[in-house]
TrEMBL record:
It holds the Pfam family MR_MLE_C. Belongs to the mandelate racemase/muconate lactonizing enzyme family. This is Dipeptide epimerase. The keyword Metal-binding applies. It is an enzyme of class 5 (isomerase). Its cofactor is Mg(2+). CDD domains: L-Ala-DL-Glu_epimerase. It comes from Pacificimonas flava.
Amino acid sequence: MPRSLDARHERFDLNAPFRISRGVKTAIDVVTVTITEGSHAGHGEGVPYPRYGESVEASLEQVHAVRSAIEGGADRLQLLELMPAGAARNAVDCALWDLQARRSGISVAEATGLTQRRPIATAMTVSLDTAPNMARAAAHLKDVPLLKVKVDERDPLTQIRAVRSEAPKPRLIVDPNESWTLDLVERLQTDLATLGVDLLEQPLPANADEGLAGLRSAVPIAADESAHVAGDVERLANRYQFVNLKLDKTGGLTAALAFADAAEAAGLGLMTGCMVSTSLSIAPALLLAQRCTFADLDGPVWLKRDRPGGIREENGRLHAPERGFWGDL
């Protein structure tokens, strides 16, 4: 049966500025892919990220470049050869998963063996701001199970202490987004442990993380910007204790599952994360989160308007989208 592929740019406004060490955003731009075959349609979303040299325009070009192959019947495994890892392939891959579920009558959860529809504790993010503002934001999140605090290199201890002063109970991820130096990582070890930090995420620039090799860190360190695909595992294994699997980096759920297998085989712990995105990005990541120790999937919480029927966040826990939203019958 013939297929058709549609790819388009959509923009979603945020309900508050989202600040990290690299900048601030007030809206997100996503690429939405729909693949239709007969009466069935599968949907997927990717969030092009400038940090990786991506743009909406370039991502749309990548999708259009494989249109004839996809419309001719190319499957998810062939897609791995047709497109590079990144947001564009993520959108196509997840649309193919969704289409497969609707055509076969077998949900993506069943197909992957990740069938338990339980709420997932997600990191709720305190974005980078002045210490008093970060404390105020943390006060509203003091009862969630997991917090993530965005910091930079200027005064991270003050930032972390401000959050901890108002939210002493949640587990805590600290994310400098590549802004620290190795000297700063080493100097803050005791303080991070004292403040009850459970995970330090990508403290060093991805191209300068060799200094982490052999470091006896007081808290586990997770690779984010350094970790993209399964082929990275050998390089990461002696520098990090966790890897952050983001579908926009791996290029879809298919590659993310392979990356998870490789990481676990190398003794690395798993985390799954997201860009600020809609629930169409989070639905497949929510399945992957069932295999992970840490999940950071609060992207849709930052939106003024999410897609109808998407995930529901309740006190730091994500509930699966409505039946039929993505990957379900």
